[in-house]
Amino acid sequence: MSNQNGWTSTTANCYFGTAFRVGYVGIINEVRYFMNRFTKANYVGKLKFQGSIDGLTYKDIFVVG
C-alpha cells in the first residue's frame, strides 16, 4: 500500500493519517517509513508524526532527526 506516490513541491505541506472509533485508544508501537528518493535537508527536522484527541489541535509525537 502506498499513501503518497509522488510530489511536485518540497515547500507545500502534505498530510495523511488515520482515525480511531469513538471510545477507543490508538497506540503507536512502531513507525516505519520508506522513501525511494531522500534528500536529507527536505525531511530532517521537518517530517513530524503528530497525534490529536479532538482533530483540531495536534501534538508532535516525534520529529525525524
Tell me what the structure shows.
This protein is mostly beta strands and 65 residues long. The chain has one domain. 6% of the residues lie in helices and 14% in strands. Strands 1-2 form a two-stranded antiparallel ribbon. β1 and β2 (59-63) form a beta hairpin. The relative contact order is 0.17. The model has no long low-confidence stretch (mean pLDDT 79).
Would you kindly provide a brief summary of this structure?
This protein has 65 residues and is mainly beta. The protein is built from one helix and two strands; from the N terminus they run αββ. Helices cover 6% and strands 14% of the residues.
Radius of gyration: 14 Å
Mean pLDDT: 79
Number of helices: 1
The spatial strand order of the largest sheet comes to 1-2
- Main beta sheet, described? 2 strands, antiparallel
Give the DSSP E fraction (strand runs of 2 or more residues). Answer: 5-15%
Number of domains: 1
Task: Give the overall shape, derived from the CA principal axes.
Answer: elongated
Distance from N terminus to C terminus (CA atoms, Å) equals 25 Å
Spans of at least 5 consecutive residues whose pLDDT stays below 50 are: none
Order of helices and strands: HEE
